[in-house]
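Page 37, continued from 36.
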């Protein structure tokens, strides 16, 4: 249920540099890691079925994000599935987000990666583990690079990271009501 504090991995990308000059080209943008673990009051198989059904995404997404799914969605995620939707992630600016399900290991985990959207990089791993007959541990591991290069790194702790916290807090509350 706890979320680890902000963690900057020791991996850096040469993205978002604001100039082609030698000094500024060496600036790097960190890859951030967001972790969240939650106990869900659902049997393991039911929990997997809920999360692996992409049609449930709108049920666990805060309304203020304005999520509108634009793709036909199957009842279960599979590798290669592309999900297109629009969202208003920051400052009420509507944008397209295209996510690909890149890995599925039923019923233990799946991975989605942004192909088009608000982040420079978004890699989201979802893990599931039965605690007992009626509860499942859901663990999320997200690696992301904010938009806007160095500016994104500066606003991450003030805007982007807190928004991720709110999104996952909303999901936790919604799952408690399911």
């Amino acid at each position: 249920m706890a979320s680890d504090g902000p963690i900057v991995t020791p991996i850096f990308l040469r993205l978002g540099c604001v100039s082609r000059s030698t000094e500024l080209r060496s600036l790097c943008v960190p890859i951030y890691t967001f972790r969240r673990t939650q106990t869900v009051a659902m049997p393991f198989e039911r929990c997997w079925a809920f999360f692996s059904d992409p049609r449930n995404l709108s049920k666990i997404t805060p309304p203020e994000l304005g999520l509108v799914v634009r793709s036909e969605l199957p009842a279960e995620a599979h590798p290669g599935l592309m999900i297109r939707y629009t969202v208003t992630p920051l400052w009420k600016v509507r944008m397209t987000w295209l996510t690909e399900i890149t890995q599925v290991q039923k019923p233990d985990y799946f991975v989605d990666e942004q192909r088009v959207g608000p982040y420079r990089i978004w890699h989201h791993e979802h893990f599931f583990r039965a605690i007992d007959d009626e509860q499942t541990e859901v663990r999320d591991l997200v690696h992301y690079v904010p938009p806007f290069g160095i500016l994104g790194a500066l606003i991450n702790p003030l805007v982007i990271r807190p928004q991720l916290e709110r999104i996952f807090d909303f999901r936790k509350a919604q799952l408690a009501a399911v």
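Residues 1-26 have pLDDT under 50 and may be disordered. Flag for discussion at group meeting. The chain has one domain: 7-177.
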